[in-house]
Amino acid sequence: MTDAADAIRHLVVVLGDQLDPASAALADFDPTRDAVWMAEVAHEATHAWSTQARIAVFLAAMRQFRDALRARGWRVEYRALDTHTHATLEDALAADLAALRPARVVAVQPGEWRLAQSLPRVCAEAGVPWS
Taking the complete model, does pTM exceed 0.70, yes or no? Predict the structure, then answer.
């Protein structure tokens, strides 16, 4: 549970294929009130066939992006594969919405239809607006 000092105005969801520091989702980012959310989950690594080398490069890029944001002084809620037991992005997001209790989730629409449908639904079920 977060206290008033840790309250999150916008939880900005950044997916692994959206690693752009000029992203529209980050345009209104306030380091004093907002946090970026990213998660590595096994399901996303295996949903579509991929080589282990490609998966390793993908995860390395996500971690490099995380580190670059943190170097700016931004709060990044990052869930690495070995730090949680959530099988899907949806499960990881639902758990963090309950724990972090942001006022709103901000995101660029996922390019994959499955996630474009499921992530806003997870937010709606948690009572957190998705925009």
Answer: yes
SS3 63: helix
On the CB side of 46, how many CA atoms lie within 13 Å of its CA?
6
Dist CA 79 CA 89 (whole Å): 10
Mean pLDDT per 10-residue interval, the chain, length 131 residues: 71 95 95 97 64 82 97 97 91 97 96 94 98 92
- Six-digit token pair at 20? 């752009």
Burial of 123 (0-12, 13-18, 19+ CB in 10 A): buried
CB 13 within 8 A of CB 94: no
